[in-house]
Amino acid sequence: MQKIVIDTNVLVSGLLTPGFSSKILYEHVLNKQVKLCLSTAVLEEYLNVLFREKFRKYKSFVTNAEIVLAKIAELAVMYEPHIKIDILPDKDDNKFLELAVEAGAHYLISGNKKDFLISEYEGVKIVSPRDYWDQYHSGSPSIVSEPLPKYGRSRKTRKQNT
């Protein structure tokens, strides 16, 4: 089964509006069509962002967020990255890449084109929700179902191999 990491902006968008983010969230993640990879750091960001005051103005947002987060916590595979990556302009976003690499995820899905300037890192494809959806449903050979090898090497080892 395919492993994915979802950036917080995709989760927020999926809860707020219909579209590719909500389709990925509800049809793929919550229907167990993919394995969502999660770490403590990413879960903490989800919680911090989803319960910000600015989202309380949207009808039923907090209730939906609580339900979705509880289901995500139940379904997700937990990883604790042992690697540190420092390549993204927004340093807080590196945790998503660390998780994706540690988990051997196939995809990191983000709507943040400003900070995710790369399209792939150590075998993890970095795509927008639309690109992910289109590739998944096109039967594209780039959508693989075999797990990638775990990249749990130390930073020192990685530097020697690059």
What does this protein look like?
With 162 residues, this protein is of the alpha/beta class. Helices cover 44% and strands 12% of the residues. Strand 5 (120-121) and strand 6 form a beta hairpin. The protein has a single domain, classed as 3-Layer(aba) Sandwich (Rossmann fold).
Keywords:
162 residues; alpha/beta; Rossmann fold; six-stranded mixed sheet; 44% helix
Report helical residue fraction.
40-55%
Question: How many structurally independent domains?
Answer: 1
Order of helical and strand elements:
EHHEHHEHEEEHH
Which structural class matches the secondary elements? Answer: alpha/beta
**If classified by CATH, what would the architecture be?**
3-Layer(aba) Sandwich
User: Largest sheet, described in full?
Assistant: 6 strands, mixed
CATH fold call: Rossmann fold
% residues in beta strands: 5-15%
Uncertain spans: 141-162
Can you tell me the CATH superfamily?
A: 5'-nuclease
- Classified by CATH, the class is Alpha Beta
- Computed CA radius of gyration, to the nearest angstrom: 15 Å
Number of helices: 7
First CA to last CA: what distance?
Answer: 29 Å
Number of strands: 6
In short:
With 162 residues, the chain is α/β, with parallel strands linked by helices.
What's the topology here?
Elements: E1 3-6, H1 8-16, H2 20-29, E2 35-38, H3 40-50, H4 61-75, E3 77-78, H5 94-103, E4 107-109, E5 120-121, E6 124-127, H6 129-138, H7 155-161
Parallel strand pairs: 1-2, 1-4, 2-3, 4-6
Antiparallel strand pairs: 5-6
Helix pairs in contact: 1-2, 3-4
